[in-house]
């Protein structure tokens, strides 16, 4: 049987091929496309029982009905997040949905720290200057993280790793979540409400899933509570931040820096080369004008270790589907 995979990046191809070869020994082949699955590309999936998708797929009710009509019975998403999938519509269409519930938390936590450090120490600006042989230090002064306060919004696996790194820097730890993580408590983290975290943290890092309760958790009110020189990092989901409110805050000169690996309207932009096109997203274009903002292309997960685990788990999900089994990775099971 041939399986189709959408949104496969060039550096992922060999890893996915190896995972399929190891998992199926050539019994099933995978057709890999750079295209992302959405209303414009869904016709390409006709006739494929198993469809592999990425986090930037747009799987609304119409797309899912088209997939079901074309014979798709499993969507195996190569990510932990699944807010791009209408699960009720999938269930109604008779399509099972699986995700990757776990992969290396170090990949995302380390990248979040890369953003925090790059923003704090003005590394992109310094690197750009040095290429022009400008080695002046004007405007490059940062701060020690040691002795300052890190606020971790969401203290699951990734948030806990971020906190461990912060602990290594010698930072005071504040956290907020629906449940306290014993690993974080052992580090000396104090759990507080969101408002307290926003007021007291020098560095705020977001590691919570995108849910109705967390959509725009960083809004104008939250930004107003933050310190004038706070640093904000988001390596989780773009919808956690009200981008327009963030822009208005940055325009006042508030916030020392912002590091974003995600953006709430990133679908159709991130993972694409837009360098020869006019940027029609005015909000993103405005955001990119601030010198103290770093935007990267949803790459926090993108390490050999994490991608290898993602592909291996995806193969396991396909194998379970073909054998009539389910696992904790399945969000929608056949007949439910």
Outline the secondary-structure elements:
Layout lengths: L1 E4 L4 H15 L4 E4 L17 E4 L7 H9 L4 E4 L9 H7 L2 E3 L6 H16 L2 H9 L17 E5 L3 H13 L2 E5 L5 H5 L3 E2 L2 H7 L2 E4 L13 H6 L5 E4 L8 H9 L5 E4 L21 H6 L5 E3 L8 H19 L7 E3 L4
Parallel strand pairs: 1-2, 1-3, 3-4, 4-5, 6-7, 6-9, 7-8, 9-10, 10-11, 11-12
Antiparallel strand pairs: 5-13
What does the radius of gyration come to? 21 Å
By secondary-structure content and strand pairing, the structural class works out as alpha/beta
Biggest β-sheet strands, sense, barrel: 7 strands, parallel
Number of helices: 12
Let me know the number of strands: 13
Task: Please identify the oligomeric state.
Answer: single chain
Helix content: 25-40%
The overall pLDDT average reads 95
- The low-confidence parts are none
Report the principal-axis shape: globular
**What do we call the CATH topology of the largest domain?**
Rossmann fold
- The number of distinct structural domains comes to 2
CATH superfamily of the largest domain: NAD(P)-binding Rossmann-like Domain
Architecture (CATH level 2) name of the largest domain: 3-Layer(aba) Sandwich
What is the CA-CA span between the terminal residues?
25 Å
Strand content: 5-15%
Give me the side-by-side strand order of the main sheet: 8-7-6-9-10-11-12
Write down the secondary-structure element order: EHEEHEHEHHEHEHEHEHEHEHEHE
What is the CATH top level name of the largest domain? Answer: Alpha Beta
């Amino acid at each position: 049987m041939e399986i189709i995979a959408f949104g496969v990046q060039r550096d992922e191809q060999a890893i996915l091929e190896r995972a399929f070869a190891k998992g199926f020994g050539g019994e099933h082949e995978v057709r890999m496309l750079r295209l992302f699955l959405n209303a414009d590309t869904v016709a390409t999936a006709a006739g494929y029982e198993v469809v592999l998708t990425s986090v930037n797929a747009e799987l609304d009710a119409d797309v899912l009905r088209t997939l079901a009509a074309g014979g798709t019975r499993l969507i195996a998403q190569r990510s932990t997040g699944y807010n791009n999938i209408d699960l009720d519509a999938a269930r109604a269409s008779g399509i099972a949905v699986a995700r990757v519930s776990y992969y290396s938390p170090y990949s995302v936590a380390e990248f979040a720290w890369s953003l925090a450090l790059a923003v704090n120490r003005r590394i992109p600006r310094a690197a750009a200057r040095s290429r022009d042989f400008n080695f002046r230090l004007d405007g490059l002064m940062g701060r020690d993280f040691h002795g300052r306060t890190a606020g971790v919004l969401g203290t699951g696996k990734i948030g806990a790793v971020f906190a461990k790194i912060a602990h290594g820097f010698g930072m005071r730890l504040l956290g907020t979540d629906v449940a306290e993580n014993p690993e974080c408590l052992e580090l000396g983290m104090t759990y507080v409400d969101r408002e307290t975290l926003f007021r007291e943290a020098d560095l705020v890092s977001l590691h919570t899933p995108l849910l109705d309760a967390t959509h725009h958790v960083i809004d104008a009110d939250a930004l107003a509570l933050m310190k004038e020189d706070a640093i904000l990092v988001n390596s989780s989901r773009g919808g956690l931040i009200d981008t327009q409110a963030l822009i208005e805050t940055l325009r006042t000169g508030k916030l020392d820096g912002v590091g974003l690996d995600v953006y709430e309207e990133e679908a159709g932009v991130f993972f694409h080369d837009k360098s020869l096109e006019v940027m029609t997203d005015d909000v993103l274009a405005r955001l990119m004008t601030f010198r103290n903002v770093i935007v990267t292309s949803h790459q926090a997960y993108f390490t050999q270790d994490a991608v290898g685990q993602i592909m291996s788990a995806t193969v396991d999900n396909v194998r379970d589907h073909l054998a009539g089994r389910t696992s904790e990775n399945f969000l929608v099971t056949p007949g439910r």
